[in-house]
Amino acid sequence: MKSIQSTSITRKIFIAVSSLMIIFYFSACASKMAFLDSSVVPGAGGTVKVKKDNNNNYDIKIQLSNLAAPTKLQPSKTIYVVWMESVDNTTKNIGEINSSTSFLSNKRTASFETVSSTKPTKIFITAEDESKTQYPGTQIVLTTNDF
Known about the structure:
Blueprint: H1 2-28, E1 30-34, E2 45-52, E3 58-65, E4 79-86, E5 91-97, E6 100-101, E7 108-116, E8 120-128, E9 140-143
Antiparallel strand pairs: 1-2, 2-3, 3-7, 4-5, 4-8, 6-7, 8-9
């Protein structure tokens, strides 16, 4: 009778520890960070999720909401550009944001996804006149803390 109870308790402990390890493993694989409040577009917000994939690249996913059209900024711009600072202290243009207004809502939302071979340490978004610019302008719309 005692060996059956011991086996049952041991099994429950094993299952609990295994479950916690699995949860920890999957949560450690990706980091998610919110953008800081913006003084340029006060209502804008969003998150950045960075996950290392099987090829040792970094999948970067950005979700944004309440992002005003860049033409409504002062001074007016034409596009939002996403920048990445990496562990090797370089800043790289990784793409442009295309915002949209959904059918059922007037909230401006946007999403962005890309892959990088270097680990990002910070992500930020600027308003620019052209998407192929090599250096970020001074109008930083959203930024994260360092990862």
